[in-house]
Amino acid sequence: MTTAIAKSEAQKALIEELRACLTEYRFTEAMARIELKHAIGRIVVTSQYYKKYAKGSEIDEIAEAAGIHPSDLYRCIAFAEKYPKIEVAIETLQVDKKTLTWTDVRKTLGESDLSPKRPNINKCHHVWKCQVCGLVK
Prior knowledge:
This protein is mainly α and 137 residues long. 60% of the residues lie in helices and 0% in strands.
């Protein structure tokens, strides 16, 4: 009976340690993602090439060439413009939350800050390239 109790206590301790590790990892991962998104936005906003109101195909081209989805790049830019200092953003947005997520940040960004609607909503802007022969469609 004593062995079963000891095993049970050891198992509880192990589970608690794993939960604590996962919680800390998730917090670190979420903060790193927010810091990355802010850094991407800050790089664009402080670039000599960037014009604050240059939206549409120019920003879309930059995003796609950099391997970032255009709407994600617009959100990164809006985040950096709204909160020039990442510390202020975290302090402002992390009210009553242990873990601040990118979703929490996105909810604070106004739709007017994001990419304008494309004139032809049915027109696809994706380009497909075959990995085998290199054919572009």
